[in-house]
Amino acid sequence: MNIAQLFLDAANKHPNKKAIVEKNNSITFAQLQIEVGKTAAYFQEKGIKTGDRVLVAIPMSIDLYRVVLALFYIGATAVFIDEWVNKKRLETCCQLAECTGFIAGFKVRVLGLFSKEIRKIPIHLNPNKQSNNTTQLVNVSSDASALITFTTGSTGIPKAANKTHQFLKHQFEALTDVINPNENEVDMPTLPIVLFLNLGLGITSVLSNYNPKKPESIHIPSLIDTIKTNNVSRITSSPFLIKKLSEYIIENDIKNLPIEKIITGGAPVFPMEAKLFTKALPNVKTTIVYGSTEAEPISVIDATVLSQENPQFNHGLLVGKPYKHIIVKIIPISPNPIPPCTLNELKTVGDGQIGEIIVSGNHVLDQYYKNPKAFKKNKIEIDGTIWHRTGDSGLILNYQLYLTGRCKQLINYQDKLLSPFIIENQLQQIEGVTAGTLLQINTELILVIESIATINENEIPESIPYDSIKYLSKIPRDPRHHSKIDYERLRHLLF
Q1: What is the model's pTM?
Q2: pLDDT digit string (tens) for 145-165?
Q3: Of the four, 145, 288, 443, 466, which is 20 to 30 A from 87 by CA?
Q4: Which helix (H) or strand (E) holds 103?
Q5: Count of alpha carbons within 13 angstroms of residue 93, beta-carbon side
Q6: By the 8 A CB rule, do 77 and 71 touch?
Q7: What are the Cα distances from residue 308, in Å, to 22, 36, 246, 435, 476?
Q8: Average of pLDDT values for 305-328?
Q9: Tell me: the pLDDT tens digits for 484-493?
């Protein structure tokens, strides 16, 4: 099998339909199919073979998807490294990936001259070049690597998700089930994997002016113009962009947008944010997906349901019922690897008790690239099936899944677990507070509050214990979605 076949089938079915719209440019499915074939032939002529790994450093664009589909086409593997990693981390990833080829835009190619590891890559490719010839689709085994994606991190061996052609097919099937698309939709995706899905379903994708490296630079009026001009009926994006769009719609009383559906995920969505989404776009079906790089979706909830939850959510953040094709269990929190066992031997916690969320299913990643340590830490073999440890803490109550934050952020205090994740939501409801969290430094509990002025401490809920308060004008966020607190950078900033 070859995952690129899904795109070829869609192109044969919808040849004249626009596949991708990028600013003033667009490409139809038929045109993209031709260019993918010519790009694949160019790669082969340059020496890229089936099974080779190629480091790809191209921003989200028509070129990116033409290049990656061409790599799939010849059975090569596209390797992605987060564009915000530092030079040292980049070179460590390059060493592990052992790439045969490197393809990037001009600026990145120039920067690559200053990296010894990138210079070591034998074949450097030009993303603007194509052959005058074409080539045939290469049939590969279902367990052949299609994508290798290195995740963010600053210490240890980088964790690389190894996504096979079979895994991508299962993930696409699960996401299709959740998104429930129709062929007439026009989507504006900022999540790269969803645009791949659209190409396999014959759905038009419109690229926005959203830059994930500079999320706060998003210009909402031009985004709305793009939505109107292209008659965008669906937005698939991180909560940060949906929140900014919703705020602008309410502030400026924007009406009659063509949006019918929103799919958001990648970061937590709290009840107050869900209320904001439903207020701004009351006739739009907004679906919130909980998942991770290794397992998406895990659970799904409608924004209207979440908006009716108690904003204090004492149990945790409701993320809905587990997706029907995934199995979820909650195990005791432990930093230690779990040896192979049977389901009967696996220790789990009772309903309503906090533990680590583990999952299994066809669309759950069961391998990392050249990292047995990451496998041992993050996977469990149960009755011969690989389960994924999400690293998220949570609980199941009345068949619903609740999040209580990352396991490593939980604080042991007076024989009970404190969840900074829950506290963060409670703090945001205090007037003047835009973000906040609770840190434990040695034995001291420190409230960190993002605010332009000090707040009335009487407004802090009595349920939140703390020894002192530190104020910051800006708490650092994660670089990928700009929604979660970056605890490592926060600790470094304060201490």
Answers
A1: 0.90
A2: 999 998 755 456 778 999 999
A3: 145
A4: strand 101-104
A5: 29
A6: yes
A7: 38, 47, 18, 22, 29
A8: 89
A9: 788 888 888 8
